[in-house]
Amino acid sequence: MTTKRNTTATAPVTERPLAVIYDRASTERQRDNYARADAARLSELAERHGYRWELRQEIKSGESLANRPVMKRTLEEVEGGVVRAIVCQDFTRLSRDEDGIDGRVIRQICRDAGCVVVTPEKVYDFSLDVDDDLADIGFLIGKIQKRQNIRALVRGMREKALQGKMLPQVPSLGYEWSSTLDGHHKAPGAELRVRAEDVPVVQAIFDLYEHASARQVAHGLNAQGFSFRGKKGESHPFRAADVVRIVANPFYTGMVVWGRSIRSRHLKDFQPVERHVPEFQIITFEQFNRVQELRRQRYWTPPKSVGSPFLFSGTLRCARCGAATVGQRHHKRHDGQMVEWHFYQCRAYHQYGRTACQGTCLSENVARPAMERFLTQVLSEGLNLQGYLRDAAEEMATDSDRIAGLKAEVQEAEIGLKRLADAIVAGALDLEAARQKTLELREKKERAAKRLSAVNAGKELGEELVRAIALVENDLPAVMASMSRECFRDLLRLVVRRFTVEATGAPRNRVGRVASHEFTPEFQEFWLTHSSGMVGGRGLEPLTSAMSTRRSNHLS
Question: What pTM was computed for the model?
Answer without folding.
Answer: 0.46
